[in-house]
Specification:
Elements (H helix, E strand, L loop, with lengths): L15 H26 L9 E5 L5 H10 L6 H9 L10 E5 L5 H9 L4 E6 L5 H12 L3 H8 L17 E6 L4 H16 L3 H6 L4 H14 L5 H13 L7 H8 L38 H8 L8 E4 L5 E4 L2 H11 L2
Antiparallel strand pairs: 1-2, 3-4, 5-6
Helix pairs in contact: 3-4, 5-6, 9-10, 9-12, 10-12
Length: about 325
């Protein structure tokens, strides 16, 4: 009879020495990882305070990351790139101002820059009316329809004569949490600052601020190229002669509406009964029709001396003026027909 012998193999437990070595290796790897993490992703300065970091319009992401490193906000550009990529933001860093600190790690800074900025860059050109500026502000500051409407109400200006003309074109850095009324105050503060040097000249001309800015707004909308001083001289000549200004831009201001704030005027528009209709009523409109540039203010206060009463712009935007109506008719036939 054959007997099969089955050998039982006993599994040996790892020795204590091997366990200790493994544990030490794990601790070393973990410590190294933590040190590497701190070196690349950790705060650049644990005790630094919060400050404003500005991202200018059209600034590339590579430049932003470089600026963060140079300014001491982050330890590693590569680590910041990784952290920002993992935020899931596909729009990139928006232009504006952010409150961040070197005491924040790369993940926190990336998260802050992935969200809308605290300070928003807002740019608009001279010659716009208040409604156009409202649209730009509402988009940049993410206003609700109600906040936009608040901007358009008289509550944002001291009096009706300042409903237009006191919001200079340019670039502004505006806190996103400011109310429409506070934004209006900020823009008017720049108006006061930029146009204060002309206060004495306004007094010398024996006109009011409203009259000066209103005339400048007409010049801003009517002028082409570098003829603002000439147009100013012509319009003041009409005022001094008791003529109607007959400025097409005032008809545009009357008829303007959402989607087309400056429509091309027609013959029928000249019959509109409005205090802004300078074809129907003599003198300046009640208040500015747009927000003029400094150049238009200067032209209104320093008009070119001319005998011209009439003017037109040809198809190339070149101005032609005449002291007589007959001369104006001749210019129309020569340059516009």
């Amino acid at each position: 009879m054959h007997v099969q012998v089955v050998e039982t193999v006993r599994h040996r437990r790892p020795s204590r020495r091997i366990l200790v070595i493994g544990l030490v290796a794990f601790v070393i790897v973990l410590a190294g990882s933590l040190l590497a993490y701190a070196r690349y992703f950790g705060p650049a300065d644990e005790y630094a305070a919060m400050s404003e970091f500005l991202v200018t319009p059209d600034q590339e992401f590579a430049v932003i990351a470089h600026d963060l490193k140079v300014a001491g906000y982050i330890r590693s550009i590569t680590a910041f790139r990784v952290a920002f990529a993992l935020t899931g933001n596909i729009r990139g860093v928006r232009e504006g101002g952010y409150r961040i600190s070197p005491s924040m790690d790369a993940w926190s800074i990336a998260s802050a820059l992935a969200h809308p900025p605290y300070l928003a860059w807002v740019t608009f050109k001279p010659g716009l009316r208040k409604e156009e500026i409202a649209t730009i502000l509402a988009k940049k500051l993410e206003w609700t329809p109600e906040e936009k409407e608040t901007w358009l109400t008289v509550d944002t200006v001291p009096n009706a004569s300042q409903a237009e003309g006191v919001y200079p074109g340019g670039t502004y850095l505006i806190p996103s949490d400011r109310t429409p009324a506070e934004v209006a105050v900020q823009l008017r503060a720049r108006f006061q600052e930029e146009f204060a040097p002309y206060a004495e000249l306004v007094i010398e001309k024996n006109i009011t601020w409203t009259e000066a800015i209103t005339m400048a707004s007409l010049i801003e909308r009517e002028a082409a190229k570098s003829d603002k001083a000439l147009i100013a001289g012509i319009l003041w000549n009409r005022i001094n002669d008791g003529m109607r200004l007959q400025v097409d831009a005032t008809l545009q201001y009357i008829r303007g509406e959402e989607g087309n704030w400056w429509p091309v005027p027609n013959v029928e528009d000249k019959k509109i009964d409005s205090p802004y209709n300078t074809y129907k009523y003599a003198g300046l409109p009640p208040h500015p029709i747009a927000n003029p540039s400094i150049e238009s203010i200067e032209a209104a206060l320093n008009p070119e001396k001319t005998k011209c009463i009439y003017y037109l712009h040809d198809t190339d935007g070149v101005i032609h003026c005449s002291p007589t109506y007959a001369g104006q008719v001749a210019n129309v036939n020569k340059y516009l027909k």
